[in-house]
Amino acid sequence: xxxxxxxxxxxxxxxxxxxxxxxxxxxxxxxxxxxxxxxxxxxxxxxxxxxxxxxxxxxxxxxxxxxxxxxxxxxxxxxxxxxxxxxxxxxxxxxxxxxxxxxxxxxxxxxxxxxxxxxxxxxxxxxxxxxxxxxxxxxxxxxxxxxxxxxxxxxxxxxxxxxxxxxxxxxxxxxxxxxxxxxxxxxxxxxxxxxxxxxxxxxxxxxxxxxxxxxxxxxxxxxxxxxxxxxxxxxxxxxxxxxxxxxxxxxxxxxxxxxxxxxxxxxxxxxxxxxxxxxxxxxxxxxxxxxxxxxxxxxxxxxxxxxxxxxxxxxxxxxxxxxxxxxxxxxxxxxxxxxxxxxx
Length: 344
Prior knowledge:
Elements: E1 3-5, E2 12-14, E3 16-19, H1 37-49, E4 54-56, H2 65-74, E5 82-87, H3 102-116, E6 121-126, H4 135-147, E7 151-157, H5 161-174, E8 179-185, H6 197-204, E9 207-211, H7 232-235, H8 239-242, H9 245-260, H10 266-275, E10 280-285, H11 290-297, H12 306-316, H13 324-330
Parallel strand pairs: 3-4, 3-10, 4-5, 5-6, 6-7, 7-8, 8-9, 9-10
Antiparallel strand pairs: 1-2
Helix pairs in contact: 1-2, 1-11, 4-5, 9-10, 9-12
């Protein structure tokens, strides 16, 4: 397993990490996963055996059960790994039971610490941007948690470029701890992060933790061949939106390239494409069963060639959008990261 620095921090994380959103299966979450007990422990042990040192969850996953089950599955191994969790989602019926206020951050952190059965959270992330709470309040509260020893590092998830940059600038102005990471959606299907979020991360020293690397399983190819019933995409009604001709072309190429590499799978090809992109610190894997997990973990054992990357870049290219099309066409010689984005 390769280990990479998380942004500009000195913390090393495994190039592949494991997300336990599938742990729990309480009402409203069962279509995502119902992993618990021995299966949860086996998956965690498999990850650790393969060198994964970062496990990601959130306080809203299965109403907190995901955090509890992660703690149980880790047991005494908790000291050997890094735990990332998130706050800002709705955790109660009160008016202050969500968001990035000091009130909610402190109470959410204490609740997560109890569920995780730990005295500190290695990476504490705001789950989505809060445009009501002043960034100074959110960042000061997080800085206080770091100074109190309850949190080691902080990050964001699902922020737009301008709110991420505003937060970083606020931390710099006030002398507060900065976000060292951004958890973002990125895959061959969804490459929007290349416009702002990935360049921002490279420039500002913010490591990208990638969620949805297989586009909720679409890139495995099972939907192309009609075997995706009972999955998350079908359960949440999003399959028809994603099942475009572009998406099918991507899957067809993944299957062809897997055939060219004996023993490889379309999923492994898709994961390796992300692993070669600048700014990516770790790719968050998810799995319903051990066979799926084992197959995806094998992606860490090899990498794609430049020619293979170029083929995947071409088939998955998005239509150029203003102003990024002009920037790439007329400002290419002023781009300090020529390998980050493909030309238009």
